[in-house]
What does this fold into?
Amino acid sequence: MDWQFIGISAAKIVAVIAVMLPSIAYSVLAERRVCAFIQDRVGPNRVGPFGIWQPIADGVKFLLKEDFTPAHVRKMYFWLAPAITMIPAFLAVAVIPFGSRLGDEKMVIADLNVGVLYTFGIVSLGVYGIVLAGYASNSKYPFLGGIRSSAQMISYELAMGLSVVPLFMLVGDLNLSRIIEYQSGGLFHWLVFKQPLAFAIFLVAAFAETNRLPFDLPESETELVSGYHTEYSSMKFALFFLGEYAAMIAISALMVTLFFGGWMLPFAGLDQPATTLAGGLLHIAIFFGKLLAFMLLFIWVRWMLPRFRYDQLMHLGWRRFLPLALANIVATAVWLWISQSTP
Amino acid sequence: MIVNRKQLSWWERLYLPALIGGFKVTLRHFFRRKVTMQYPEERWVVPEGYRGAPYLVKDQEANTKCVSCQLCEFVCPPRAIRIVPPGPDGAPADRPNAEKMPREFEINMLRCIFCGFCQEVCPEEAIFLMRDYSLTGTSREEMLFDMEKLLALGGTHHDTIQKWKHKAEEAKAQGVEP
It folds into this structure.
């Protein structure tokens, strides 16, 4: 047993969770404020200056509310579902490099060499929590929400997986740190510029993955009350809520890593691993900044677009994105073959 | 009725025009002036003729105008007004020639329905529905407004007729001291 490794890993886990939980709380606040501004309102601004303590008030409210379990639910699954929704979102962050180096330590919890496969595997587990919640609630709206969630998953998951294949053909590695290294040396080395189509497909699939509008079919407030979490209250509901935002953070982090060069900026030597402590911290800040930009995108789009019907989502996933993703793979393969055979 | 769906062009089916349009709309609204009125700090200015809380007024010579006729007490649908007249040996009115003024005048603001009948019925223009629309208190007792409070809140009403003053002057001119 390497105690130093365990200690450092534990410290990284604690640090990531300690940053992530407040980030979730504040992205909820940001969501409410941005939504209010788009709707010509002011939003929550009463708790503290500009409402900055609102998340604390929300948290206290969730903790103090009665945790009500309806009589008609299947208890075990009902209790299990919120946890299954939340945990994968947190687990997915484990392989994402959120900085280059602090001292000698690589700023990633687990530097897996199959990082991307792990992330896709874990992130798609979140859907089971939703389906389980819909099943366990044993009433009509959650049930419909659960059904829609499964229908949604089979529509986007394949396109999402195929959309990133060209990236790995270019990079030749599944390790996320290696993917970031590949993107160093100039803005146009970022994979978003090399694979814009892959990015577009992945972005849309990411919205479907996190159940955000325009693809919030399992929740569908206007028609399914609250969809899969209609029967949930108090902290169990809060776990779904945390899970949704944690999944947004995880998928944003993944997009930053895959397409936007992770912790690097293409100038001032910021695209090389940091040698000093300040440089390391700056890289973490850059990563966080990019992450925030994506979170803002997620929030903004929610208040911009109406919801898709689920046959429309299926149409989009199977008949538009799947052929496009496949064509992209073939095109990338041909391009690689040509560029390597004619040096 | 059959609504024929519009055939979308190739460009429209890419969803891009809708995306751009949506972004323009949301961006415009994001920076627009907000319609929210932040209540305790900003308050709604009520229009002229608004029926708010009924208060008693004094005339420009600081005399209580109410003559304790009890018409408002009688007409009040929810019986929110309670008047105790001075009685035969009560204190005289503020004004020299006026008949009398109430010993106690109380409005229960929890009962008041702001109908304006008291203002309508008052022969002396002594009670008015003013612009106060948010009356709050922490107890029921606090919401019983007595005469002192009602007069203080009502302030001065500029009386153009000044009936009692003119009557006194007429009496003086006819050599009858009031």
Remarks:
- The CA atoms of residues 119 and 128 of chain B lie 5 Å apart.
